[in-house]
Specification:
alpha+beta, ATP Synthase, domain 1, 5-stranded mixed β-sheet, 5-stranded antiparallel β-sheet, 10 strands, 27% helix, elongated
């Protein structure tokens, strides 16, 4: 039995992580789950939340907006709709973006724009909650 798990976390913008880890915890739509080396294969949809990457040096938290997790005999791959390391989030800039998007979401104008802003606002507020 291997003592590490091959793990890759990819968003549309870039690969955020690739390497061998001890464990990964992720926010599945059916509940939080953890993947260890030699885990049984499965695939699931992710909900917005924090992926915790357990390495020998510590735990790296990454916020994902959603996506898919695929566990195979080769390891775990997460394809995230959007992802950001919590250590990279500027809380002041996040608050400013939330205020701007909240204004857009409350604008009585274009319904499609309002819907996009409402969806973005939900993501940003979940990200802010993850920082606490």
């Amino acid at each position: 039995m291997a003592d590490t798990l091959s793990f890759s976390l990819v968003s549309p913008e870039r690969e955020l992580f690739s390497g061998d880890v001890k464990q990964v915890d992720a926010p599945g739509v059916e509940g939080e789950f953890g993947v260890l080396p030699a885990h049984a294969p499965f695939m699931t949809v992710l909900k917005p939340g924090v992926v915790r990457i357990h390495e020998a040096a510590g735990v790296t938290p990454v916020f994902v907006r959603g996506g898919f997790a695929d566990v195979t005999p080769a390891g775990l791959t997460i394809l995230a709709e959007e992802a950001v390391r919590l250590s990279d989030v500027d809380a002041v800039a996040l608050d400013a973006e939330i205020a701007k998007v909240r204004s857009d979401a409350n604008d009585p104008g274009d319904e499609a724009r309002k819907a996009r802003a409402t969806e973005r606002l939900a993501y940003l507020e979940a990200l802010k909650a993850a920082l606490k």
